[in-house]
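Much of what follows relies on a compact textual record of a protein's fold. A record is reproduced here so that you can trace the correspondence yourselves:
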Amino acid sequence: MCLAIPACVEEIVAEGCAIVNLSGVRREVSLALVEDVKSGDYVIVHVGFALQKIDPSEAEHTLALFAEMQAQNDPFSAE
């Protein structure tokens, strides 16, 4: 199964490339598949490519669900 993850665009670094924040991890991705992306936008990222822009509230909701799933699967979390 493949998973695309919402990421916040922190900086446009070159024509067609940006630095995004994936839950605290900064990574350079290609913007070749999306148009009109600027700092502060959220994009869906898969294997180093931004696939589409996403609404910020939808991105934050999705990231919160991922965090909840991770907390439930953490064997060291206190219950």
